[in-house]
């Protein structure tokens, strides 16, 4: 027997709104129950590694966040969970969606139409709009929905025409037709949609596949009263169409409050009231707390249940009195029945769950789109970002051209003489250094800024981490081939390096590999630390010492034995040596050094040909292609490290 059948018809009738139902285009929603939820967690969070280490061996103090919380959200109803800060509303929403529960101990049951559901089942049947909107700002609203439709509405179930039709339908339903082809925008960089339009776009992307339940965390946060009304009205419309909608909200206006079918008032981690919004104020009045005339009822309810630190005892008495008054009503008895019924039926609910649902995890969850489709769609989005983001392509292109021209003019047509050997070596080392620092450091904040979007979409089961990583890397690869070639073309011919086409091609290959090794390191640092400030602090700690052992500032035979391992890790060394071999192996004679009276400028005398120059800086001509192989292995190997770090973070976030 299901829970809905176990409750009396009177109880169910009290929880139903008698307004006429609008003909819906969504599948009928479901009844979501939560029974006897108890959540405890640490009183304080460890803010750094040292504090976590100190607390590792000691027993940490815990506090109760939710206490014996039970309730239900009905199909075709908008339920608003309300309460002051610390009341437990966000924790309740997190438990219902099985998100953000790290370090929390959760007891109790969540049931869908009377059957116990694990986190994967809930995510399969629901959508979650989080408080902060996250988008790839270079896409338009329509393109974003097309992106989501292709991934969430798999080609096995929907045709391209059906997906496009659904996108147009959702744009119309959310009132986004006029801004459908406007870019979403990037703060302080690219003007785009308003805050209200972005919030409605968040709803639109989540309802594409017609979920049975829609969760929203503070949907009106940061919006003015006018925009907040539009956003909540959109949610009310979804509920009227048949969806089960659950939101948390802090201080709704009276207009917004009137849009709620049901409200769940919380205080001190307990449910104080759960029922129709228009019956909450009469209950408070009956308990001796009437709402003043012309006063926002939502403000009155939340203010009455707020815990005032200076008069905590009185606040607790008020909360207890209202809670007892609610539990004595039919509505209160129905909430108690949900908790008691689940305790009696917990075993049968647990055994009725599918085995596949029990064993489903992050690594074997189902996706609506194939791996190839995910890759193709993610490649499309990443490519749009590359060509549209003003800071990614145009600024980098300008930076490369200006730097290359200045470098080329400084070393313009440098002749090969004993006095210019060190200058020519400097050209080649600057080649390596400039391509590293111009692209490596600016790339870190670009990656870290996109990670929260990736983690959220990955946690929602939109696509695989591997599909994203592969698509992004391949989409960005052309710019990390074209930009190095452009830089090398200007510097190589301006500075007068050995005038041979094949030597130029080899120098371009080295420049491309060095650039991609540098980008691999930025990927690794960004995914390992996932924080711009930390990553940008750690990156120079690794790169600068590696550069010092690159062979230009100190010869390899002069490096202390305990630092030789750093020399082996120096990609600057492999790139510099490859360029040096490419240049000097083609120089058969240095004419001025054939004159025995000439002054020796080199460290080991005056080299008579390019091979002697290589010997003077501890390079071997036989290492030319070995260096290329090492750079390629570094390029691939460090990318794999970055992928593993991203996979681990995605798993922890999910």
Write up this protein.
By secondary structure, the chain is an alpha/beta fold. The chain is built from 26 helices and ten strands. The protein has a six-stranded mixed beta sheet, with helices on both faces. Strands 2-1-4-5 form a four-stranded antiparallel beta sheet. Helix 6 packs across helix 7 and helix 24 runs antiparallel to helix 26. The chain is elongated and about 110 Å long. The two termini are 33 Å apart. The relative contact order is 0.09. The N terminus is likely disordered. GO terms for molecular function: ABC-type transporter activity; ATP binding; ATP hydrolysis activity. This is ABC transporter domain-containing protein. Belongs to the ABC transporter superfamily. ABCG family. Eye pigment precursor importer (TC 3.A.1.204) subfamily. It is a multi-pass membrane protein. InterPro entries: AAA+_ATPase, ABC2_TM, ABC_transporter-like_ATP-bd, ABCG_dom, ABCG_transporters, P-loop_NTPase, Pigment_permease/Abcg.
